[in-house]
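Let's practice the habit of predicting before peeking. Look at the sequence and jot down your guess about where helices and strands might fall. Then scroll down.
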Amino acid sequence: MARIVRTILAAGAAPLALAGCMGAGAAVPSASTPITQQEAQMGAQYHPQLIAQFGGAMSGPHAAYIEQVGKNIAVQSGLGNARESFTVSLLNSPVHNAFAVPGGYIYTTRQLVTLMNNEAELAAVLGHEVGHVAARHSQRRQQAAQRNSVFGMLGAIGSSILFGNSEIGQLGQRLAMGGAQFFTLKFSRKQELEADDLGIQYLSRAGYDRRAMGTVLASLAAQNTLDARLQGRNASVPEWASTHPDPASRVQGALAKAGAAAGGVTNRDTFLSRIDGLLYGDDPAQGIIDGSRFIHPDLRLSFTAPQGFYMVNGTSAVSINGQGAQAQMKLAPYSGNLETYVRQQFTALGGQNSTLAPAQMERTTVNGLPAAYGIARVNNGNSQVDVVVFAYEFARDRAFHFTAIAPAGRAAVFNPMFQSMSRISQAEAGAVVPKRLQVVTVQRGDTVASLARRMAYPSAQEERFRVLNALGSRDGLVPGQTVKLVVRAR
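Done guessing? Here is the structure:
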């Protein structure tokens, strides 16, 4: 929940997720029309909003390196004749994502970079995103984008899966607004594979190992499977509800297109040395997810997700997702009256012309915090759903709230979460320490098991270590090899 930024993007900004749709492809154009003035203006308009929505752009040596590699691969596309034609940003986000917008603006999150194992994989990811822009995939969807905001488009995808195309679909759409983890457009299978193909072409032109597209997709698939297991959900969770949809079905296709011969450079040692020390996971300044608990040391608050639900920390909201129900925790302007605040959230959720309002309103106290909540029942085709807004006053000018949607009669699944909201002490806030990537050299006697024990996690240490380093279940280590660890910053 980074900086509590409330950014709603207008039509036209078309983020292009690396881990999007999968499936059969088609012929790939070999050249690209250069960036037009209109595209450059569009990118410049939405660039600040995208930066804000994803926790801000990072600076320093890590960001400079990402920018260098990104510009080097982008010029292979023919979109621009000079490296200065492109803007490449490293985003302070804990989700695995990459995207681009027209005008030469390319983005990757730091979390996705930590999953990579060489420079060729970084170039592959950024090349894939440039491929979306070169093929004008977002423009092909411009008509839909003009009818809906980016979040609205995606929310419609999510709500139609959860609740069907109905009145509550619009509520689910608005609930999705603001969650950075939902910030992807669902490209067609053809478009995703076309971007893969273009990215492989760019790798070849730049002298990189063409197989890097397949290996980075394999790492992303392995991470997705591990995350699903650790969160207690099925790895085949619908794409709209995942921050990094499973790209497993694209791996073999990418490897086949790259060819059997390795060839080209990977620059593994250079890459690992340049990303050493990169922030990993949640930034404490944006709040952290610790198992089923969310803690924000700066805002001094904490809550616990219901059993069987998983959380994703977005820029303007924390999303809580489970089977058939979803919720978000966020902040909104507060004038000092909790009941008014709750009603305002119903109005915002229902839309400008909506009459959505709570059928009942209750005042209570939760762990010493003044609180209020309202419930509304909404028709959903042949069934109904309950919408709950539960708000808490932290100060005379500050309130936070949950918005939850669940099938009628089942909103009580969120009651333990509603009752878990609390202030945390200064000591608890001070105990929140960030994690960082540490690159180490394997010494004689080191094993996967011994190094994995240094990972800053209480469980699944070896599994996390293997996925982080693209090691198979039977792969071992050799002295002199460089590997990544996740450790607590000191």
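How did you do? The longest helix spans residues 212-230.
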